[in-house]
Amino acid sequence: FEHILGTNSMGQDIFWKLTFSIRNSFLMALITAFFSRIIAVIVGLLAGFKGGKIDRVLMSLNDSFVILPLLPILILLGSILKERLNIISLGFVLALFGWAWDARVIRSQILSLRERGFTYTAILSGQKTFELIYKEYVPFIIPLVFATAINNMFWAVGMEVTLAILGLSNLNIPTLGTMLHWSINYQAMLLGYWWWILTPVVTAIFLFVALYLLSVSISEYLDPRTRIQRIGTAKG
Question: Distance between CA 45 and CA 77 in Å, rounded?
Fold first, then answer.
């Protein structure tokens, strides 16, 4: 039991490599999700609430990012910035390209809320715009923000793994992607080190499933409609 998950062909303990890899991959995904949520919420709120020219300009920008071929662009950036990419900078790069779809979802929610009766009531009662957004709209978009953030983390981990397997990220930093890269590069399966390649693959699968289940659970828990149902059930 000295090496729980065995070692690779260079004698490195795979368990300890895995612990650092999970930490780095998860941190990168969190950075991506956090900063892309900031962009998505700002764009979605402004476009949905203001409407008019602001909506058209922001949605034109949004559509430009939606139709961009992300993988070729990230491959190009990876080949240029390869040695300068670390966990934080890769998270920032992915965040710049990972907000567009979610901004459109948030905008749709705001457009729907803007036509509700409570919006007109709040405006007629003299409620300020910031107060209206904070008190009336934010509770409805929080589930969306959390759910899309976790989905974004899912996407970020997948993109990091893809870039690393192609050798287009900083391979000196342990991540799930670089673990896979080195196991493939050193022909782990041919040499009989099946656990070397299987460990990051199984871990990535479990991570994806866990993020998906967490996304569903948070959406259900934070949704104002299910929250009202839970309160009604508790009182009954």
Answer: 30
Residue 7 backbone phi and psi in degrees, to 5: -130, 165
Q: Domain holding 100: CATH number?
A: 1.10.3720.10
What does the alpha-carbon distance between residue 36 and residue 142 come to, in Å, rounded to a whole number? 15
Residue 30 is predicted with a pLDDT of: 95
13-64 residue pLDDT tens: 888 889 999 999 999 999 999 999 999 999 999 998 888 899 999 999 999 9
How many domains does the chain divide into?
1
Q: Is residue 165 part of a domain?
A: yes
Structure token pair of residue 45: 């709120």
Sign, CA torsion 184/189/190/193: positive
Sequence-distant contacts of 10-19: CB under 8 A, at least 24 apart: 10/186, 14/195, 14/196, 14/199, 17/174, 17/179, 18/179, 18/199, 18/200, 18/203
Q: In this structure, is residue 8 part of a structural domain?
A: no
Q: Mean pLDDT in runs of 10 for the chain (236 residues)?
A: 72 86 94 95 90 90 89 88 87 92 90 82 80 82 86 91 90 90 84 85 90 82 63 55
Q: What angle do CA 88, 148, 31 make, to 5 degrees?
A: 10
Contact 207, 30 (CB under 8 A): no
